[in-house]
Structures are given as C-alpha cells and as structure tokens.
Design a protein that fits this description.
158 residues, alpha/beta, Helix Hairpins, Chitinase A, domain 3, two-stranded parallel ribbon, 7 strands, elongated
Length: 158
C-alpha cells in the first residue's frame, strides 16, 4: 500500500470528522431509519429510502477516512530543521516573474489540499517545482496556458 504524507493538523481534522460521523451522524441516521420504518410500507416510504441513502454515503465516508488514516504518514513539521528550503509543510510566498503578482501557499498532503485556502498538494506540479528550492530561486511551472516562472519570495516554517 502506498503511504501518503499528512500534517498533524490534517490528521487531526480527519480524526475529528471521523468522530463526528461515528458518534453523532451515524446514530442519528439509525434513529431516522427506525422512525421511517414505523411509517409502514417500505417500498413507497420516501423517508426510509432517503435515510438509507444518506446512511450509505456516511458509511462510505467513514471507510474513506479510515483508509486515508491507515495510509497516512503523519509528519510533525515543527520537528523538521529549518534549512530555508521549501519542503513538505512549509508555507511559501511566490511571485509571478512576468506580472509580479504574489501568492502564498502551504504545501500539505494530498488529502489536505484546498486551493481556495492556499493549501496545495505536495504532489502538485507547482509544489514539485518548489520542493528543495530556496528564497530567490526561480522555478518554471508547466500549466495548460503555458510555462509560468515564479520567484520564491519567502519560505516560512510554521
């Protein structure tokens, strides 16, 4: 089985979601299914079928989280020495060489990536180009619109 890196924060978020689904959502759905069963004929019971469908989705998500946690290598980035290089868990500010537009990204595990929150997967083309580089380095990233060059403005180990 392939192992995937995950930050401590990412693991904690998955554990919290798992706990919520197993301790709050799952029991409520079981109760909803029981209540819907009491309404009579199951063939035409929309409440029953909706609750069963929801239960299936919740159970699938629980299994998904368990699988992800089983295949995770949890890395406490606070214990990694600060070398000034971009590594897993660092936050990096980059500037587009052509437009001088800057953006900040946190390099995280695949399961934690959320582009809207500035979290990019360590396996993404941008993160792969940045890994092992340091402030002042320029990297070229191949995008659907062509190659874009970025200068590394700052590397932070948070």
């Amino acid at each position: 089985m392939t192992k995937y890196p995950m930050t401590v924060q990412g693991a904690k978020a998955l554990e919290e979601e798992h706990a919520h689904l197993t301790k709050v959502v799952r029991p409520k759905l079981s109760q909803d299914i029981g209540t819907a069963r009491e309404l009579g004929d199951l063939k035409e019971n929309a409440e029953y079928h909706a609750a069963r469908e929801q239960q299936g989705m919740v159970e699938a998500r629980i299994r998904d989280i368990e699988g992800r946690m089983q295949n995770a290598v949890i890395i406490d980035v606070t214990t990694i020495p600060h070398t000034g290089k971009v590594i897993f868990g660092t936050t990096v500010e980059i500037a587009n060489v052509e437009t001088d537009e800057s953006v900040v990204y946190h390099i995280v595990g695949e399961d934690e990536a959320d582009f809207k929150l500035g979290k990019i997967s360590v396996g993404s083309p941008l993160a792969r180009a940045l890994i092992a580089k340091e402030e002042g380095d320029v990297v070229a990233v191949k995008t659907p619109g062509g190659v874009i060059e970025y200068e590394i403005v700052e590397v932070r180990h948070i």
